[in-house]
Structure formats: structure tokens, C-alpha cells
């Protein structure tokens, strides 16, 4: 029964780019599988790095959930705002149970990466078949959720301890996932490009394979195409549009653009935080501030905006230091898990660092956690990394980052 639920979780993860309902099914199956595992046999040492990493992730989500709950209680805000913290916390508890449920099996580790590659393939099909406005969820959290898949996939592709027969298919999935992110035209998810470039450069520097010059040349061409796209007539990544918005906002005080509105909202949030840095204004206070902004500016940009489009400023404005602390604890939990895995599970460490970077940077330009898909996608990605690490036999010679 438990293994069947885990198969459902993996299947839901593969199909998750199609709908948040698939992500929800995968998340639910993961939690139920862990509940069944509580009465099963346990394997391995509780002091193993992957178990320590899972515990640190769970403690971070527990503390974040507690802080967020205290903040909601203080302001009398609706408890529904806590649902994303609870999703992360329950999934963290589930993976903490599951990493000790079974003895290591290499085929499970490879299967999880293959499922990730399949999910990237699905995401490419979705992105290429739909416009940005037609994606299954809001384009920003959807693209960031695909970037999470790439964070899981890329270090595994570069892992020379795995047979190339597996890695070549994973590499194909990596390319397709990157196509999905680029096709979504989501600037907030483009940090994955920087992360992937850094990961490849570090790999080439450490291992210096015979094909390094070709890889460097391909990377240089890809980065030049990426940057030069701002001068193409179609502006496919909307980079030129972002630059123009910034210029208009700074030189003509024009906030009625996608980027200009963000700059104006961030300035408004900063002023509000300065007035109540300790306790915040509550969700009602933030919604009132957003309505006031909307009444002053163009409705086609501002009418539907309900938050400050910055995870950190939004939480700080709403609930003061407790709200900001809850957001930062989630990020610190990812970083702590990554550091714990660094020596004995270097691939998993790089996967967790990637998730931390993408999660941390993507939150600077949007409040992704207000969308159901986001917390589900992050919790599933972290769970896949930790479960794969638990099923990857430790090799004493493999103590360097791939």
C-alpha cells in the first residue's frame, strides 16, 4: 500500500505541469505514504546526513509555521493564509519519515530523476501549446515550479557517478524544461539560467573533461543569445520591456507598467514597514493600502493587484518581524539541508542549493506562496531530493561537488 501511494505521488509529480490538482494529488499521496510508514520498519542511522538534513528542513518549516500562526493570531487574520506553511510542514514531516523507511535502492534514486525529466517534458509541451496567459496557473509560480524541476535535474545530469545511458535522457529533459521556462516569458524564473551556468562552470573547473572547450563555447553562445534577445524585434523574454519600464519609472515617475508598478509597490511597502516594523499592519491593512494604490493609477495594471509582489516585503508589512521570520526560516531550512548534505551527498547538496537560490530570488519579484501550485511544487521538489539522497549509497570517494 505504501509503495503504491509513492507511485501515485511520483505519477502526480510527473503530471504536475498540467494542473495544480496533480501536484495536490502527489502531495497527498506522499503524506499518506508517510503515515503508513510510521508503523513500518525503519532502516539506517538517524545520524546519517540525509536524515539530519530532513530533520533540519522539518524543524525550519515547523518554526516558520509557528511564527506565521502567531502573526495571524495577533492580527486576527484568516487562518486560510497559513495553508502554504502547513503544506510545506506536512510534506517535510512526511519525507522525514520516508527517508528512514526503506534500505537504499539505486533504482529508486534513478527513477526519481527520470520522473523529474518526464515532468520537464510535460512542461515543455504545455508551454509550447499555450500562450503565457493560458498556462494552467499564474505564469510566474508555474515557471518557477518548472525551475524547481531543473534544480533537481541539473546536478544529476552532471553526476559522473551515474551511467551516461541514464544521463543523456535526463539531459534531454533538462533542455525541455529550460524551453518551458523560456517559453513562459517569466522574468522572475530566469534566475535558473544563472544557476545552471554557474553549475556548469563549476563542474568544468573541477573535472576539466576533454569536451570542456566545446561546453564553454556552447555556454557562451547560449548566454549571448539570452542577453541579445532584448534587441530582437519580438523581445521573446520581455527583457527590453523590463528595461523600458524601469527607465519610465525612474525618469518620468511612471508606475503604470508591469515593472514600474512593482517599484512603486516596493516603495509603498517600505514606507509602511517603517511605520510598524515590529508588528506590521495585518492583511486587512495591506489590502487597504493596495486598494488606495489602485484608485490612484491605471486600472488595467492595478485593478487586480492585491499584494506587494515581493515575498519579504509583503510578509514584513503584513505581520512585522514574525512574518518576515517565517519567510526567511523556509529559505534558511533549504540552505541548512544543503550544507548538511555537502560532503557525503554532493549531488543532493547542489540540488538543495539550487532550490534555495531559485526560491529566494523568485520571491523578490512576486508573492508566489499565494498560489496553490507553488508550495506544492517546492515541497515535492525538496522531498524528491531527500528521498533520492536516502536511496543513493554513500561512496567515500565521492565527497566533492559534481
Describe this structure as you would to a colleague.
The protein is mainly α. The chain has one domain (2-235, 313-390). Helix content is 72%, strand content 0%. It has helices spanning 2-15, 20-37, 49-75, 83-98, 106-129, 139-157, 164-183, 191-207, 212-228, 239-252, 258-275, 282-296, 299-302, 311-340, 346-362, 372-390. The relative contact order is 0.16. The model has no long low-confidence stretch (mean pLDDT 92).
Number of helices: 16
Count of distinct structural domains: 1
Low-confidence stretches: none
pLDDT average, as an integer? 92
Biggest sheet overview: none
Number of E-state strands = 0
Structural class: mainly alpha
The oligomerization state is single chain
* Strand content bin: under 5%
Helical content stands at over 70%
The dominant shape is globular
Distance between the termini: 35 Å
Radius of gyration: 21 Å
Question: How are the elements arranged and paired?
Answer:
Layout: H1 2-15, H2 20-37, H3 49-75, H4 83-98, H5 106-129, H6 139-157, H7 164-183, H8 191-207, H9 212-228, H10 239-252, H11 258-275, H12 282-296, H13 299-302, H14 311-340, H15 346-362, H16 372-390
Amino acid at each position: 500500500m505504501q509503495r503504491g501511494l509513492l507511485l501515485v505521488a511520483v505519477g502526480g509529480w510527473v503530471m504536475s505541469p498540467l494542473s495544480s490538482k496533480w501536484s495536490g494529488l502527489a502531495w497527498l499521496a506522499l503524506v499518506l505514504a508517510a503515515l503508513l510508514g510510521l508503523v513500518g520498519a525503519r532502516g539506517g542511522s538517524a545520524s546519517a546526513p540525509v536524515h539530519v538534513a530532513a530533520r533540519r528542513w522539518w524543524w525550519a518549516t515547523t518554526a516558520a509555521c509557528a511564527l506565521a500562526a502567531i502573526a495571524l493570531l495577533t492580527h486576527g487574520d484568516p487562518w486560510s493564509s497559513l495553508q502554504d506553511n502547513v503544506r510545506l510542514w506536512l510534506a517535510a514531516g512526511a519525507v522525514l519519515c520516508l527517508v528512514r523507511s526503506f534500505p537504499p535502492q539505486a533504482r529508486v534514486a534513478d527513477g526519481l530523476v527520470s520522473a523529474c525529466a518526464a515532468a520537464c517534458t510535460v512542461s515543455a509541451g504545455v508551454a509550447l501549446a499555450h500562450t503565457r496567459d493560458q498556462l494552467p496557473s499564474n505564469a510566474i509560480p508555474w515557471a518557477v515550479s518548472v525551475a524547481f524541476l531543473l534544480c533537481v535535474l541539473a546536478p544529476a545530469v552532471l553526476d559522473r557517478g551515474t551511467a551516461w545511458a541514464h544521463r543523456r535522457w535526463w539531459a534531454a529533459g533538462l533542455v525541455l524544461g529550460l524551453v518551458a521556462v523560456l517559453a513562459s516569458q517569466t522574468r522572475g524564473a530566469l534566475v535558473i539560467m544563472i544557476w545552471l551556468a554557474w553549475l556548469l562552470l563549476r563542474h568544468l573547473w573541477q573535472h576539466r573533461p576533454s569536451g570542456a572547450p566545446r561546453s564553454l563555447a556552447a555556454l557562451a553562445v547560449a548566454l549571448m543569445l539570452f542577453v541579445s534577445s532584448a534587441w530582437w524585434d519580438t523581445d521573446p523574454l520581455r527583457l527590453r520591456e523590463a528595461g523600458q519600464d524601469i527607465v519610465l519609472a525612474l525618469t518620468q515617475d511612471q508606475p503604470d507598467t508591469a515593472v514600474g508598478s512593482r517599484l512603486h509597490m516596493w516603495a509603498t511597502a517600505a514606507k509602511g514597514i517603517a511605520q510598524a516594523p515590529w508588528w506590521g499592519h495585518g492583511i486587512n491593512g495591506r489590502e487597504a493600502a493596495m486598494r488606495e494604490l489602485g484608485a490612484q493609477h491605471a486600472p488595467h495594471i492595478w485593478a487586480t493587484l492585491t499584494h506587494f509582489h515581493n515575498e519579504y516585503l509583503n510578509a514584513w508589512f503584513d505581520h512585522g518581524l514574525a512574518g518576515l521570520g517565517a519567510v526567511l526560516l523556509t529559505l534558511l531550512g533549504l540552505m541548512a539541508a544543503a550544507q548538511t548534505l555537502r560532503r557525503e551527498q554532493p549531488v543532493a547538496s547542489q540540488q538543495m542549493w539550487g532550490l534555495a537560490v531559485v526560491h529566494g530570488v523568485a520571491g523578490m519579484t512576486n508573492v508566489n506562496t499565494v498560489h496553490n501550485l507553488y508550495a506544492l511544487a517546492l515541497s515535492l521538489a525538496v522531498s524528491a531530493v531527500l528521498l533520492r539522497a536516502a536511496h543513493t549509497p554513500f561512496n567515500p570517494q565521492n565527497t566533492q561537488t559534481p
